[in-house]
Q: What sequence folds into this?
C-alpha cells in the first residue's frame, strides 16, 4: 500500500549468498582425505611397524563406520573421496614406475624372473577361479586375485579403473573397497607371520627376502616384513616385489583386450567407437617412468621426492577406498571372502617358497 499518496514500492528478496567454492564439489572429500593421510602418517610415526598405507586403509574403514562422521562421508564428502580413490590411485601407480629400472630386472637373473612370473600367474588364475566358484559378486574375484598376485591395493585400483562394468550398477566401488580391505588385512598378518617362519623354514637372509618379495602384497608391507632379516633381505625383497609390480602393465593390457573383444562380440555395430585403449594412459605413464628410471638421468633427490609424493597420493587414495567399505555388506559374504583370502595367501606363500628353493 502506498504511504502519503506516494508510489507503491515493490520489496525484492535479497540475493542469495553464493555458496563458497571450497564447500562444494570434490573439495570437502579431498580435505577429509588429506586429514586421513595426516592421521595415517602420525600413526606410522607412533607405530613404525604399521606402514602408512596400511594405516590409511584402516582409518578410512574406521571413519566410514563412526557415527557422526559416516553421514558426512556418504554425503557431501563422497565425490572428493571417490576422486581420491580413483584419480590419485592412478597418479600413484604412475609414480611407482620410478622405483623400477630394467637393469634391476635383468640383475635378478632369468630364473628368478621366471619364478616371479610363474607365481603371479598361478596366484592370479587360482584366486580368480576359486572366487568364481565361491560365488563372490561382481568383480571381487578378479580384483582380489590382482591384489594378491601383484601389488595389493595399487593393482586393485588399476584393474578396477579399466573394467567395463562401470558404475551403473553401483558395484565397482564396492568391489574395489572389499578387495582392498581383504588384501590389506592379509598383508598386515603376513608382516607378523612371515618373520616368525624365517628360521624354521631354513632360509638364508637373501632367500627370506626373495620369499617376502614374491608373496607379500603391498610394497610397504614387504619392506616392513623383510627389514626384520637385515639389509640383504630387504634389498632382495624390494627387487623381487618391484618385478611383480612390473607385471601390472601386461595384466591391465590383457584385461582391456578381453573387454574390447567382449564388447565387439556383444555389439559389433558400435563396439569400435566404445573400445578403451589397449594401454590406458596411466599404465603408459607407469612404463614411461620405468624407462626414465632406467636411463639413470633422474637425480636421487628427485627420485626420493617422487617416492614421498607417491606414498602420499596412494595413502589418500587408500583412505578414499577404505571409506567406501561397508562392513555389513562384507559380512554377508564374510565366510566366502575369508576362505578365498586364506586360500590365496597359502597359495602365493607356498608357491613362492617353492620357487625360491628352486632358484637357489
A:
Amino acid at each position: 500500500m502506498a504511504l502519503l499518496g506516494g508510489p507503491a514500492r515493490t520489496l525484492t528478496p535479497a540475493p542469495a549468498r553464493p555458496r563458497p567454492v571450497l564447500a562444494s564439489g570434490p573439495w570437502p572429500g579431498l580435505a577429509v582425505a588429506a586429514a586421513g593421510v595426516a592421521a595415517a602418517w602420525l600413526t606410522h610415526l607412533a607405530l613404525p611397524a604399521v606402514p602408512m598405507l596400511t594405516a590409511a586403509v584402516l582409518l578410512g574403514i574406521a571413519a566410514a563406520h563412526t557415527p557422526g562422521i559416516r553421514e558426512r562421508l556418504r554425503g557431501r564428502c563422497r565425490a572428493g573421496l571417490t576422486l581420491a580413490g580413483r584419480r590419485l590411485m592412478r597418479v600413484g601407480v604412475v609414480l611407482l614406475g620410478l622405483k623400477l629400472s630394467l637393469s634391476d630386472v635383468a640383475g635378478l637373473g632369468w630364473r628368478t624372473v621366471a619364478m616371479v612370473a610363474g607365481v603371479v600367474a598361478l596366484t592370479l588364475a587360482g584366486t580368480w577361479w576359486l572366487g568364481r566358484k565361491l560365488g563372490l559378486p561382481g568383480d571381487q574375484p578378479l580384483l582380489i586375485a590382482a591384489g594378491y598376485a601383484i601389488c595389493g591395493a595399487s593393482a586393485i585400483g588399476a584393474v578396477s579403473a579399466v573394467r567395463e562394468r562401470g558404475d551403473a550398477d553401483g558395484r565397482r566401488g564396492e568391489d574395489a573397497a572389499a578387495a582392498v580391505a581383504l588384501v590389506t588385512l592379509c598383508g598386515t598378518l603376513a608382516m607378523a607371520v612371515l618373520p616368525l617362519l624365517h628360521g624354521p623354514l631354513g632360509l638364508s637372509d637373501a632367500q627370506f627376502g626373495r620369499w617376502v618379495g614374491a608373496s607379500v602384497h603391498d610394497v610397504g608391507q614387504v619392506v616392513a616384513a623383510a627389514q626384520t632379516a637385515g639389509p640383504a633381505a630387504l634389498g632382495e625383497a624390494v627387487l623381487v616385489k618391484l618385478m611383480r609390480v612390473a607385471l601390472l602393465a601386461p595384466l591391465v593390457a590383457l584385461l582391456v583386450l578381453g573387454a574390447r573383444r567382449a564388447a565387439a562380440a556383444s555389439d559389433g555395430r558400435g563396439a569400435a567407437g566404445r573400445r578403451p585403449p589397449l594401454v590406458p594412459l596411466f599404465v603408459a605413464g607407469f612404463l614411461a617412468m620405468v624407462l626414465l628410471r632406467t636411463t639413470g638421468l633422474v637425480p636421487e633427490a628427485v627420485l626420493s621426492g617422487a617416492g614421498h609424493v607417491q606414498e602420499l597420493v596412494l595413502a589418500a587414495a587408500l583412505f578414499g577406498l577404505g571409506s567406501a567399505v561397508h562392513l555389513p555388506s562384507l559380512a554377508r559374504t564374510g565366510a566366502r571372502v575369508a576362505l578365498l583370502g586364506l586360500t590365496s595367501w597359502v597359495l602365493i606363500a607356498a608357491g613362492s617358497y617353492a620357487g625360491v628353493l628352486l632358484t637357489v
